[in-house]
Amino acid sequence: MEISTLHVVATAEPIAELDRLGDEIAELAAHLDAATARLLELIREFDARGGWNHGFRSCAHWLSYRVGMRLGAGREHVRVARALGSLPRLADALVRGELSYSKVRALTRVATPETEERLLAVGRAGTACHVERIVRGWRRIDRLAEAQEAAGHHKARALHVYQDEDGMVVIRGRLTPEQGAVVMQALAAAGETLYQRMRAADPPIWPRDVPAGTPSMEQQRADALALLAEAALHHGLDPGAPGERYQVVVHVDAAVLADPEAPGQSLLDGGTHVPAETAQRLACDATRVIMRHDPDGRIVEVGARTRTIPPAIRRALHDRDRGCRFPGCGLPFGQGHHICHWAHGGPTTLSNLAMLCRHHHRAVHEEGYRVERHSDGALSFRRPDGRLLPDVPPAPAVPCDPSRALQAKNEAAGLRLRARTACPGWQGERLDVGWAIDVLHPRAVRPRAIGE
Ligand SMILES: [Zn+2]
Ligand SMILES: [Zn+2]
User: Fold this and answer.
1) Any idea which ligand is nearest the CA of 334?
2) Which residues surround ligand 1, an ion (CB under 5 A)?
3) How many whole angstroms from 78 Cα to the centroid of ligand 2?
């Protein structure tokens, strides 16, 4: 008896001290969550206003570059920030430090304005682990409902084609969303082709057998469908190898390739005009065939097909650059960019080449970004306004006691955060996930109450 009393006396002080330490951790964590809410608010606005949309692929890429966040974490921040835009109750609970970022992150995976209130109660009552388990179960129900819907769509697809009494062919059908998207895209493309042909024809050939007036939207669509059918039959219903499908042929005057301001043409195979900067980008790393025309436009000489960057140099470039060199990108594959374009006499040597992904190759050719190589081999990138884009941006200055500064800022904003602010209401009961979801999920089959 005496021994145990002694024991309590000896440890009471350290326990109280550890409690205080624990409280301090919990309080600071609540402050950090409140600050995270503000961070997400800023990210949401920055994302919505396209603040990242100057050389970066996405807001997450910008966060990774500017803030040093792992790309996955950046994506998650952007996702949560966007979701909270329509979930004011969850957003508010995070602001007030009542729900941790971990819980909010999990809940925003499934919450909708309709279910937000119920899920907020789950977040308040349960531990982070409970919340994870409920969200997982919730998603299973969502996926099940989605799968049922998709199966229903797939089953309901149908196309009825029959001839009417007057000889007209009637088409009526229901397509799955993916099939429909392809058909609508194809109809739009065919409609555009017909429109271009109509505009180019002088005198107008369309409508030829109809007195006057522009065809209606429905009439145009009918013509577009006929064109699609003709084109499909003409090509033996072959969708083509991916390389052929996406191959682009550009006809460009040598003078235009060297100087975008020069008079001349750059045209796609179908006759569509493309900006000279685009032609330069496509020509930067391409297979080229040089044809010489006489003044009447007849071809007088056709050179051999050559790659602007021979395979050996491309391998060496790959080896040296290991992906896109644009600051903050690092995509592991890309195109070779001539820092001084070959059309300007720039040589195809390693020192004049830099690997850029498709997105950043466009940024450099068409969006005004500039890249230079210094004598020591280092690359520097500049924004369109001439400002340097460093490889790693300098870290912002942080106050010498950041946690005190954060607490002061939150308190100034009217937040009273204590060690127990984010404590769940859970008393230690066993969590029955299946039952919880049956009760909470709007699409779940409700369990029947006894006597019902
Ligand atoms: Zn280029
Ligand atoms: Zn890139």
Assistant:
1) 2
2) 284, 337
3) 20
Q: Alpha-carbon distance 273 to 251, whole Å?
A: 10
Span 314-341, pLDDT tens digits: 999 999 998 899 988 878 888 899 999 8
Highest-scoring range by mean pLDDT, 82-96, 246-260, 268-282: 82-96
Residue 364 Cα, ligand 1 centroid: separation in angstroms?
Answer: 7
Task: Provide the pLDDT confidence category of residue 445 given band limits of 50, 70 and 90.
Answer: low
Nearest ligand, CA 335: 1
Pairing of the two strands 169-174 and 158-163: antiparallel
HEC-encoded secondary structure of 234-266: HCCCCCCCHHHHCCCCEEECHHHHHCCCCCCCE
* C-beta of residue 112 within 8 angstroms of C-beta of residue 141: no
DSSP character at residue 273: B
Q: What pLDDT was estimated at residue 269?
A: 62
| Contact of 55 with 326, CB cutoff 8 Å | yes
| Whether residue 452 has pLDDT greater than 50 | no
* Residue at token pair 């600071």: 28
What's at 83, amino acid-wise?
A
CA of 94 to the centre of ligand 2 (A): 35
Distance 281 CA to ligand 2 centre (A): 14
**Its pTM surpasses 0.70:** no
Q: Are 41 and 81 in contact (CB under 8 A)?
A: yes
CA 192 to chain centre: 27
Could you tell me the distance, in angstroms and rounded to a whole number, from the CA of residue 421 to the centre of ligand 1?
Answer: 55
Is 74 exposed, middle or buried (CB count within 10 Å of its CB: 0-12, 13-18, 19+)?
A: buried
Q: How far is the CA of 361 from the centre of ligand 1 (A)?
A: 6
